[in-house]
Design a protein that fits this description.
A hairpin with a 5-residue loop joins strand 1 and strand 2. The chain has 416 residues and is an alpha+beta fold. Helices cover 28% and strands 22% of the residues. The chain starts with a helix and ends with a helix. The strands form 4 sheets. Strands 1-2-8-3-9-16-10-15 form an 8-stranded mixed beta sheet, covered by helices on one side. Bound molecules: zinc ion (ZN). Zinc ion binds next to helix 3.
């Protein structure tokens, strides 16, 4: 049971846990349960308490407070949660992952399984921090799954460290491993009452030292163009081809307000899925802005485009539908700064130069924070998520374990 974070990560990475979009079951794929069941066994093996898996697959466990009876903080330390997700992104295969563990010696990294795939030093500034250190990649035919199996390995290793060293004092610690985060459903059946933590941290971030308390606010827009289909041989004056109207919509989407042209706090409108035939075409679009009211500005832009194209194609029917997805974590973080300050302090104690970085995406923590469980995010050392060039810094992963172990102790010290 004295596994390192790397041992654990390699064990979890080999289990296919890819989730699926538009599934009718929960979890979206049954294979996620393979890892969830293993984690139940391992949590029990380590000696955690209240280890459960519910009917949706959520695994929870407790590491009970270990303060001596006369400790001034006893009974006063809020319960702290740690959360990671077992599933990997549907955007790249997660089957038969073959992790490559090696020392990074500088330069670009060629992946043996696909000669076209190169992890370029110029596009990966974090590589330089790992010169002479161990990193992990896939062989290029699959993603690696550091998102978020590194997070799971970090939480498990932190739990093992605390259990093995009773002198490291902590309050009640709650652990949860969730399915289906990558398909936006990681908190759909998350039982807040059962979890019963006052604050929590997702371990689902990137580069060493990066901490996150801000995410995008997110809506999805769906534009549906209805036309009329008929055999093209007899179509004159009758056919209304929805594809042509959709083309006029796509050409009008702003090219400078796009993910490929923006960074930092800049918003975007991102068409990400298109389906079309004469009778009907559908375009799915992500709307993203750190300022929640900014989503309305992006929506107004789409409405303007749709109105213009309606006038050009009066025989089509064009619908624009907006679905709310998630909100910037910071909108709901509340005035209690402790959850952030303690994390910062823990990173400092781990010898890091921490920095708050806005996430150009969402986490399970975005939704949990909105539901009243403040939930910032901690780095894992993983990079290039969701694709075959994903890689993991083992040093980053180990420093994340250290940060989590310091974090629970900081909560005790500051509660005395
Ligand atoms: Zn993730």
């Amino acid at each position: 049971m004295n596994d390192t974070a790397l041992d654990r990560f390699l064990r979890y990475a080999k289990i296919d846990t890819q989730s699926a979009d538009d599934a009718t079951t929960y979890p979206s794929t049954a294979k996620q349960l393979d890892l969830l069941k293993l984690l139940v066994e391992e949590l029990n093996g380590l000696g955690l308490k209240d280890v459960t898996m519910d009917e949706h697959g959520y695994v929870m466990a407790t590491l009970p407070e270990n303060l001596p009876p006369d400790h001034p903080a006893r009974g006063r330390v809020p319960a702290i949660g740690f959360i990671a997700h077992v599933d990997t992104s549907p955007s790249a295969s997660g089957k038969d992952v073959k992790p490559q563990v090696f020392e990074y010696r500088g330069g670009d990294i060629a992946l043996s399984g696909d000669p076209n795939l190169i992890i370029r030093a110029s596009e990966n500034p974090a590589l330089l921090e790992n010169l002479g250190k161990t990193i992990v990649t896939s062989d290029g035919t699959t993603l690696l799954g550091a998102d978020d199996k590194a997070g799971i390995a970090i939480i498990m290793t932190a739990a093992q460290t605390l259990l093995a060293n009773p002198a490291l004092l902590h309050g009640d610690i709650r652990i949860c491993f969730t399915p289906d985060e990558e398909v936006g459903a990681g908190t759909k059946y998350f039982d807040m009452q059962k979890f019963n933590a006052r604050f929590a941290y997702t371990v689902d971030g990137n580069r060493l030292g990066e901490l996150n308390q801000e995410t995008f606010s997110a809506n999805q827009a769906i534009i549906m163009v209805h036309g009329r289909s008929i055999h093209p041989g007899t179509a004159k004056g009758i056919m209304v081809n929805s594809i042509r109207a959709m083309g006029d919509i796509i050409i009008r989407l702003p090219k400078d307000v796009a993910p490929e042209a923006t960074e930092g706090y800049e918003p975007f409108i991102h068409p990400h899925a298109l389906e079309g035939a004469e009778a009907r075409s559908t375009l799915k679009i992500l709307l993203r802005d750190f300022r929640t009211p900014g989503l309305k500005v992006l929506q107004d832009k789409l409405e303007e485009i749709v109105a213009e194209v309606r006038a050009l194609h009066p025989q089509t029917k064009i619908e624009l539908q907006i679905k709310e997805q998630y909100r910037n974590m910071k909108d709901h973080m509340g005035s209690d700064q402790r959850v952030l300050d303690r994390l910062w302090e823990a990173a400092l104690r781990s010898g890091l130069e921490p920095r708050w970085k806005p996430i150009r995406g969402g986490t399970d923590g975005s939704r949990l924070t909105e539901r009243g469980l403040p939930c910032p995010n901690i780095f894992t050392g993983g990079q290039n998520f969701h694709g075959a060039t994903e890689w993991l810094s083992v040093h980053g992963m180990e420093k994340s374990v250290e940060t989590a172990v310091h974090l629970v102790q900081v909560w005790v010290e500051k509660s005395s």
